[in-house]
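quick one, 78 residues, struct below
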Amino acid sequence: MGEGPRVIDTGIARKSPALEQAARELQAARHDARVALGLIAAGDFDRAHTHALTARVAADAAVAALMAVLTEAGRAAS
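---
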């Protein structure tokens, strides 16, 4: 848990805005999951639930962004 936030690789940003968005969403999911874990340890289950749900939404958004990239890549290959 001692790691600080990672900066999005600028190479990713140049390749695709959707990849940059996926990276941001995954970073948000990671943050919310860690907060949820800490809240569970502290016994604050209501807030932990909220952060777990927020982490799930961010992870789902990352999946959607990656699916868009794969779809676009498939079209470019055709």
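The mean pLDDT is 87.
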